[in-house]
Amino acid sequence: MPLSIDVSPVDLLMVAMVWVLSVLVVSWSVKNETAAVQRLIWYGLLAHQIAAVMMFIVTFGFTGGDMRVYARVGAQIARLMRDDFFGVVPTVIAGFLRFEVPIPVGNVAFGSATGSMRALSGIFMFLVFDSLPAVCCLISLLTLLAKLSIFRALRQELAPQDSKVVAVGCLLLPSVVFWSSGLLKEPMAIIGLGIIAHGVRLLRTKRRLRGLIEIVLGGGLVFLLKGYVLPPLALSVGAWVGVSAQARKGRGMSGAAPLYWLLAGILGAVVIIATGSLMPQFAVDNLEDEFVEAQAIGARTEGGSNYQLGGSSIFAQAPVAMATVLFRPFLFEVSNALMLLSAIEMTWLTALAVLALVRSGLLASLQRITSDRTLMFCFAFTLSLGMGVGLATTNLGTLSRYRMPMMPFYYAVIAVLARTKQTRRTADALGAGALER
Known about the structure:
This protein is mostly helical. 74% of the residues lie in helices and 0% in strands. α2 (35-63) packs parallel to α7 (163-171), α9 (185-202) runs antiparallel to α10 (208-226) and α17 (373-392) packs across α19 (407-419).
């Protein structure tokens, strides 16, 4: 039965104010872009704001979910902040940083990713006078800016003719737009990735110290709310470093640059070990148990679109898990409107992947990927994060939400490969071109 939707005059006023802010911020952000990219950014703003409204309506009108809990707890924390700002804010900040601190709100526990999200919810609700629709619109603006930062970081590396298709994946991919427009953990991960991407761009300028600070801050935000994204990110950065080093020597993947690949591997291993030590559930030794437990919990929770991976072990399930992340839900699996949109999107992406393989062949496509450091980064991030999400998820509805942070990178790989027959270039030419850009 549909739930009630209560929208007050304060909600309408705050949403209007956020929309005005969004127009002003985007107007400033697009000044140096081409006309074609500017249009895509404005379309992206419109899509994100519509998605924010739809997220609020779907959550409070039909499905319920995590956002209702975050909104309720966030409103309670926001009221405490208004009553005693300087007394409560340090506690909220400590709770966001995962310190186990007490706060006089019923059933609120800090010291975990959920606790950090509850603290952050309180801050968002405080800023817009407890208006959840305005919070959704504000978060959708922040995630749009984060994706714009990711797009600009990718554009620096890819050929100019690939910019438009990459912009579409970053700014207009339906599942990414929808699931990054609400009071949830996944949008915070996108914001963190956007901050990291901007920091990486600053490393190429004289503002390297600011770039390093932004990378640390963005990584910290991802760590606090979606820590499982960091190990795949580290592996992807390692792959980027390895391909970049080989390209400088004019070699493809078959060429020998063992020192650089060793350093890249060490970089990935350090971040993985550090993440595992700070969050034991993501330690390598515990991953299989965590996947098994996540699947068991999913099997006990009937969400209307549950599935089983099969297989006698996690390793046997891995190929099916990866295929599930990259291609499902299928159109014949649709059971509601949200799943229909997801199925249409995944059908389109599957067709795009098939087109890339038909135009260039599997080996040529792999050669293109492994010779271009940016495509290699996107490919490695898609595979590593997708594998983890696939093994830990047993519901098609939550799958669309959990894989959202990897989707712009997945789209970038297949869209660039499918756009032309350029995957038949030699690895040496591609590597040299990437470095010249």
